Amino acid sequence: xxxxxxxxxxxxxxxxxxxxxxxxxxxxxxxxxxxxxxxxxxxxxxxxxxxxxxxxxxxxxxxxxxxxxxxxxxxxxxxxxxxxxxxxxxxxxxxxxxxxxxxxxxxxxxxxxxxxxxxxxxxxxxxxxxxxxxxxxxxxxxxxxxxxxxxxxxxxxxxxxxxxxxxxxxxxxxxxxxxxxxxxxxxxxxxxxxxxxxxxxxxxxxxxxxxxxxxxxxxxxxxxxxxxxxxxxxxxxxxxxxxxxxxxxxxxxxxxxxxxxxxxxxxxxxxxxxxxxxxxxxxxxxxxxxxxxxxxxxxxxxxxxxxxxxxxxxxxxxxxxxxxxxxxxxxxxxxxxxxxxxxxxxxxxxxxxxxxxxxxxxxxxxxxxxxxxxxxxxxxxxxxxxxxxxxx
Length: 392
Ligand code: SAH
What we know:
29% of the residues lie in helices and 29% in strands. It has 392 residues and is α/β, with parallel strands linked by helices. It has a seven-stranded mixed beta sheet, with helices on both faces. It has a five-stranded mixed beta sheet with strand order 1-3-4-5-2. Strand 4 (53-59) and strand 5 form a beta hairpin. The structure holds S-adenosyl-L-homocysteine. Residues 199, 204, 207, 227-229, 232-233, 248-251, 254, 275-276, 296-298 line the site of S-adenosyl-L-homocysteine (SAH).
């Protein structure tokens, strides 16, 4: 391992890494010509100006997070065996959490596998690689996944926007079997998702516990699921005995999956293709209300610079969603933007509800389910926020 390139930090740099974060930022590094010329994704070892060892990681000069640390031992082999051990640990945690094989199996830094997300749908895996370092490990990773789970189908959903920041292309490719369509069992409902064409990994496992909670409030009540995607909240509520259930989304393919799932589960729900803001304005004007309202939008703050307009959009959504919540009803508001803090999100939701003229009590604060572990030194990886209010 003597040839492994060494990345040197500037004096006193590596602050977050000293506190356990697996990230080294590009401005913390002595960028020599040799460093800059390292191939994106090269495995390196990192040393402080004081000779302190930060261990082994992978490097990308193009990325703001220039090194993602993988292992304390600077000479550790980063290969299929290494990845297999990490995957087995991730699997052990999921098996402790859930008997059914439907979950996020790997949650990047939360599982000490930066740049990698794997969602499991029984014997089908949806794999998302978001960094050059993990991309360079694709072949040993696929070997390791086979060794651990022998999956029948593997889809590489390498189409996240963040790949461009790492200099990576965007593609979706089936590397094993076929994986267009999967079924998911969750909260007693059988859902369908489309891995080849669907969004993100194909299914939003992060909301499973929040769906169960909202469903527990839904019996005999009317429910509006805004941004319903493939019917996650809507059908969990219908299964729990909701009265009328309406889902709204702008994506026709997502609504088709929701309808198919409703039929397969013999559940009654109405799905409407519309823009949520426009539809909420229309319902408000028409004085239509629902006992339980769920609003789980796409990220409004995609980058740090979008914080102010994004925060405003969350406030507006809270105002309109509260306006269509019936007296004595419940409102769930979510944000999946890691660029807005829970504090700020809560402030915007409170302001929006107040503007709608309603009085509300916050009865639940939640994040993603436990199959989305958060790295203790990376609070920003707790991206999902969900708030439940009881309205007067
Ligand atoms: N609540 C869903 C996940 C929502 S993801 C679940 O539990 O699985 C966000 C959804 O918002 C996507 O399905 C996307 O198609 C939809 N969307 C994005 N912009 C929209 C808009 N302006 N109006 C309606 N739906 C929108």
